[in-house]
User: Fold this.
Amino acid sequence: MATPSQSKYVTLVSNDGFEFVVLREAACVSGVIKRSLDPKSGFAESAAGRVTFDEINGIVLEKVAEYFNYNHKNRNREDVPDMEIPPELCLELLMAADFLDT
Amino acid sequence: MPAPRLVDSCIKVCIRNVRGLTDVGDFEYQTIRPVLKCVSSAEQLHKIEQNSPQIQGEDAELWQAFIARDIPNWRTKNYVPKNPRNWYRVYCKYKKEQQQEIARDEEILRQSMLGLKRERETHVSKVVDLKSLPKIPRDPRMIANNGGVPLKGKTGFKKAPPSALTWTAGSKTKLTDGKSVLTRARREAKEMTQRGKLATPTGQLNIRHGQVKQAPAAMVKEYRTAAQPPLKILSRKHGVGGIKGGIRGPSLEEREARLRAAMAGGSSNRQTYNDPKATYVGSSDDEEDSGLEDLFDSKPKQQNRSVSSRRLSSPPSVPHSSSSRLQSASESSKAGSSRPLPRALSPPPASSQIANAAPGPKPMMARKRPQVDIFNRGASKKPRQR
Assistant:
């Protein structure tokens, strides 16, 4: 039913109002996002194509979006170089990644 | 998946920076466990526990790992906290007991080391102050001293005078009074004597080993004999004859005449007739022969005659030394020519003594020497002979 309206991109919104538009395919690496956007589950996010994270601030979400792109870009490659993660972000990013099941 | 999961990447980064980790927020223990396992010090873990109390009680395995790492004999004690949240206190108890054990062991070790050191000190030689030792006699030649202290004020080693000439800056003896002048003069005289000596141990130049230092004894003797004055004639009569050569001829004839008379009279007379010619004194090898002759002369007249005749028969074979008074007596006519020859031979005083010792008639001795004449023994006889 919402399938035709499904856009190619999804919007990720942080708790402090930052919005990140990423490829739906890339964002679906995260199990949480994939389930929330699944039309079968019938969540509101799946209809709007917009997911809001109340626990993740803009800085960490930016890094998460970066990871989505990085992962999508290197999906078919071997020996991928590590993504750069600043040490001050690592704990929060770990928490977000754990939350997003990425 | 080609790219690693974001969670894994984050854990990797957290482990890399685990040193600065002071809290884990509101993480569940299971999520953050890989990171906490990499915490290296108990203090840091305790701080993380204080900041994030939710992990207390679940991190027993981390504490046990710390205890196993830090406490050697934890199994013998095997403490377990009543409250599982208080693993840090258990760790602290272990730590404290360990510190006590270490201190006790250190004390034991120190005591044993002190014992060793003390024992070693009993075998060590000490450096003693020189003043605490008894005095050694300062005088090596043991001059009279008072228990090691020399009686005279400053004896001991006298500084030896320099063996060679030394150039020093002037004299240090100050000429203030007469005594100092004397001292200086003495010193300078000493220096002058020292100046003449060589620096060698013998005070002489070194001489090569085989060098000739002395003339050979034979050479010395030869020179001495050469330097001696020519033989002197001790005979008085001969001296008279030597001085007045001309008188000799007639006297000889006279004597011959006497001789014949004496021959008619006795052998002893004839012998005495010979003696003026025989009184030559000197030193030569012929002395022995002449001495022998003298001894033979003591024999009767006929024997002498035969000897003389034998000698005359072979003049060349007869050495000059053998020429004797007999020869001259027999050849009375050739007295002038024969005189130099007898001069060479010289009956020594020794021969005369032998003649004296020899048993025989007195005129025989008179023949030998003028000494006999001096004694005047034959004085009574002589006028008769002559």
Q: What stands out?
A: The beta strands of chain B are 145-146, 149-150. The two ends of chain B are 179 Å apart (CA to CA). The first strand of chain B starts at residue 145 and ends at 146.
